[in-house]
Amino acid sequence: MTTHYITIHRVTPDNRALLTRVDDDVFDNPVQPELLNDFLANPSNLLVVAVAGDAVVGMATGIAYVHPDKPIQLFVNEVGVSPRYQRQGIGKDLVAELLGHGKRLGCVEAWVATEVSNTAARALYTRLGSEEDDEQAVVYTWSLTD
């Protein structure tokens, strides 16, 4: 258990230096400055981080999007917390912060998908008041590289 004080921040172009030091296993891969710049240049993209001391120990990303036939929604894309900081409510705080930003942007609904076997994520989303859909989803992917 850690004794560091955790703060939650929305990452913007002005405070991107927060991502200078990131604990292992927060993101799937190392943060690449050019990709971070591209991400932050789009105001529909949201990135919130949990910081302990001078290190990012958790993150959540989302995107606010609109369809031609539906009002704006928030898609919660990814949540990651360093293993040594898990089970301390950081994931819950990160998602709650994303949901708050989505609400301020005018989103009328937020949604997330996770693996059926990911019991920790499912418990997190339930604690945040979400409802699990009855229908199971199937995910398809396409490789767009040669």
From TrEMBL:
SUPFAM superfamilies: Acyl-CoA N-acyltransferases (Nat). PROSITE patterns: GNAT. InterPro entries: Acyl_CoA_acyltransferase, GNAT_dom, MshD_Acetyltransferase. Residues 6-146 form the N-acetyltransferase domain. It holds the Pfam family Acetyltransf_1. One of its GO terms (molecular function) is protein-N-terminal-alanine acetyltransferase activity. PANTHER family: L-AMINO ACID N-ACETYLTRANSFERASE, N-ALPHA-ACETYLTRANSFERASE RIMI. This is N-acetyltransferase domain-containing protein. It comes from Pseudohongiella acticola.
